[in-house]
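Marked as duplicate of an earlier ticket. Keeping the data here for the record.
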Amino acid sequence: MTRSRATPLPRNVRLLMGMRTARSLGQGAMVAAFALYLHAMGWTGTAIGAVLMGGLLVGSVLTMAVGPLSDRGRRRAFLIGYDLLQIVAALVAMFTVTPWLLVAAAIFGGFGRGANGAAGPFSPVEQAWMSIELPAERRSSVFSRNMALGFCGMAAGALLAALPAWIMGHALNVQGYRLLFILPLLSSLVSLILLLAAREPRMPPPVKQTAAQAGDRRREENRLIGRLALVNVLNGLAIGLTGPLIAYWFAVKFHRDLNVIGPGLALGFVLGAFGAMLASRLARRRGIVRTVVTLRGTGLLLLVAMPLVPWFWVAMALYVLRGACNRGTIGVRQALTVGLTGVERRGLVSSVQNISLQIPRAIGPVLGGALFHAGYLTIPFLIGAVLQGLYLLLYVRFFGRLPAARASVS
């Protein structure tokens, strides 16, 4: 066993991983239930997509400010603010069905987005914080483990959301759905308690460089950040077309309820955790980019097949397998992202990573929701597959020659 694997994780990293696990439980419940809750109240697919889009757009605006500001310090304070916001949003959603209040709670609470336990628009703060606490050779492994914990929490949340309907043997009514908001409420409270036990990270001293060296390095970093933004635009739009609306799609296409959709989504998250650990192992042997291409390429084929099958359980099986392939690469891709710049700009690069994903991802639910509502239940998947293919081609071209992308990692 290598020394890096035997060395215990820093206390702050363990607390951050615990926070992700706690948050993911509430997020998993909302991925399974929130769109179906709005559907039960008579909202159209277009309206549901618009609410999800609003949450993603507002999150992107917050990310633009939060990531660069966190590079100056006070990362802990930003995350405390986020958890408090989630608590307020869950309380509002539990006690009102007033449309404008519910929409505001959904937008700021990120209901239905499924961030895998990350702190929504504040996730660049977490990524930068964790990268500071970890040496480069451990990031891929630890980031993948962190994602696996998030997926397991999402699975547990989806199962808990489906449990009342499964016990009663019929679909929940509006009041029953409202009670499910206790799950994100409790998750955020646990996350806040863990966060209060963490200490503000210490920034390492800056690397000494001449002005010319610093300028060259900054230009190279900017070039890589621009390429990252371009590939993420394609990826975000592809995900947004179907991902946030997947529970709604299963309900409309196969006329199934939360009691069977929820467990299927939960299984997808569980296999996502296995996918994250598989990606970590493959990255150590084959490098990050080859791992991403292998797993995401397999997921692309499953995405094409999924809307073409006429049976619910076959479509759900394809969704579950695709989730293992796609979700599994998130941790290793994050490890590559935070290594594109020096430590003093990791909040910035993590913000660019999130913004370039979230803004096009915010457009996707409106387009996909409108198409689903009009009866076009296959087209969004095929458009998403084309975009995913372009993403993979550019990912290899832009990052395939980076030493960190090719070398084995721990």
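See parent ticket for discussion. The longest helix spans residues 136-168.
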